[in-house]
Amino acid sequence: MPLDGLVVSAIVDELNNKVCHGKIEKVYQPEDDEINLLIRCMGKNYRLVASASSHNPRVHITTINKQNPSSPPMFCMLMRKHLQGGKITAIEQKDFERIITIDIENYDELGSLTTKQLIIEIMGKHSNIILIDKAQNKILDSIKRISGDLNRYREILPGKTYIHPPDQGKANPLQLNKEDFIGLFQHLTQGSILYKALYTSFQGISPITAMEICKRAEVDEDTALVNISSNTYEALWHAFDHIMQSMKHKNYVPNLIRDKAEHHVVDFSSILLKHYEYLYNTITFDSISRVLEDYYFHRDLQERLKQKSVDLRKFIQHSLEKLYKKLQKLSEDLRDAERSEDYRIYGELLTANLHLIRKGATEVEVVNYYDEEGNTVLIPLDVHLSPSQNAQRYFKRYGKSKTAIKEIHRQVKEAQNEIKYFENILVFIENATEIQDLDDVRSELIDEGYLKKRKEKTEKNKGRTKPLSFTSSDGFEILVGKNNKQNDELTLKMASKKDLWLHTKDIPGSHVIVISKNLDVPDKTILEAATLAAFHSKGKLSENVPVDYTEVRNVRKPNGAKPGMVIYESHRTIYVTPTNDKIDQIINNKTESN
């Protein structure tokens, strides 16, 4: 969700508690649309990030130290001139809007004490960071300059008077009583949808918060206003007022919403969102900044994973399409080659009937003594060859076809193995949780000769990622491979012969190892390990996924097999459904054991 008035309220409260009255020691601009302020306050150091990104505008305290450009941008130089060494005297939110103002006192070149104001407007693509002289209300500069050609209402340029963003005619939710709240709806079009009416009528209320108000009032958010009773309006007011009272009394509950498997961040808020409680995991924090840092870090990671995997996915999909077409062509070739038995019979029949064949004949009809009913067969002839040469020609065709069948079967098996290999790669791309996972996949494809090595800037070798590690409810360690080479290393090098090996049956996926330490592995641990194997496979969204398991000593790698490919024997099969709740429980086992 974008930052709404509720989240901004929590941010301002936290900044007042931590950095207000602090000294700005350094100013950096690591991105075109982002500034960092290093602040010393009450014996502690803080890094405040303010971003005017069109996609991720935000303000919060961060622990992430980004690399800065070798030459600071002009806006950064101006900020250093006016703010560095200054003292923060006030941090405020204007009228529950998504606007934060930070007042900084500092001495100018003449030794006079002045107040500059940093205005952070969090408004999607219109977000901006503006520095003004507070006494004169004049703009010194902004991270995004907006001329009159782009915005007739207000120019954001040095020397211009700062004008507040245009009023949207929304009510300040902190200043309403019940009569004002209910009365406001009476002036709206009665065909309007409830939750939309909430977020378009009140300042700082986002669609997510509007849906939460409806949930707490136990009313369908898509209800038309005309269908809402007076009792329902009472319930809506109580839900609305309860949230606003928590804002007034600063009873924030910073929280992050994740999917059940804890792989992706979904949302965040400064209040508990009850309409999410059965769908996702809610993780509470003691700091709204920690929530925002976690959310935007993982959101950025998800976006970078998506972008970095595009070319890999495209290559794999293209390779699979070629292999499917190759299999189809080989199938057709095989059907043709399987006519080889007809060639042998033609040769035999011609040899037995040489005396019946006239020189220069284009065909000959003879009795087919291989046919149980003794029917005749018409055999095509080459007019340029003698009868015996025609017979030998069919025998040669027969020999070539027999050889071709063997070669076609070899190529079919090779293509099928390649398809399995690429489908495995696709699973690992889907399950990547960090950039290094994709780098490992790319490295493997380069090593296998499928991709050319890129010419890139020299970087420190980060090394390969490690297998995922979990702890079963019985206390056994469970390891999950994240790519083919890791699967090989896990199964063939790291695991002991008495450890348990698991893999989805005939479905691409990860190798899973249960470290047994020479103990009998309990059924519950086997079930949990099988659930992980199913989840980290192509069948993760299926029900009753078959998972084979056996001791590692029963698993071996054939000579010349591709990475991740093994054969096994003496196995059992268990059927599992890898639901998010089950995976979540296994992850909690891991957390509780650490």
TrEMBL record:
Any coiled-coil regions, as ranges: 313-340, 398-432
GO cellular component terms given for this protein: RQC complex
InterPro entries recorded: NFACT_RNA-bd, Ribosomal_uS13-like_H2TH, RQC_Subunit_NEMF, RqcH_bacterial
Domain NFACT RNA-binding: 467-564
Molecular functions per Gene Ontology: ribosomal large subunit binding; rRNA binding; tRNA binding
GO annotation terms (biological process): rescue of stalled ribosome
Keywords, in A-Z order: Coiled coil, Protein biosynthesis, RNA-binding, rRNA-binding, tRNA-binding
Pfam families: NFACT-R_1, NFACT_N
Function: Key component of the ribosome quality control system (RQC), a ribosome-associated complex that mediates the extraction of incompletely synthesized nascent chains from stalled ribosomes and their subsequent degradation. RqcH recruits Ala-charged tRNA, and with RqcP directs the elongation of stalled nascent chains on 50S ribosomal subunits, leading to non-templated C-terminal alanine extensions (Ala tail). The Ala tail promotes nascent chain degradation. May add between 1 and at least 8 Ala residues. Binds to stalled 50S ribosomal subunits.
Self-association state and partner proteins as the record states: Associates with stalled 50S ribosomal subunits. Binds to RqcP.
Membership in a protein family: Belongs to the NEMF family.
Name of this protein: Rqc2 homolog RqcH
UniProt source species: Anaerosolibacter carboniphilus
Designated gene of the protein: rqcH
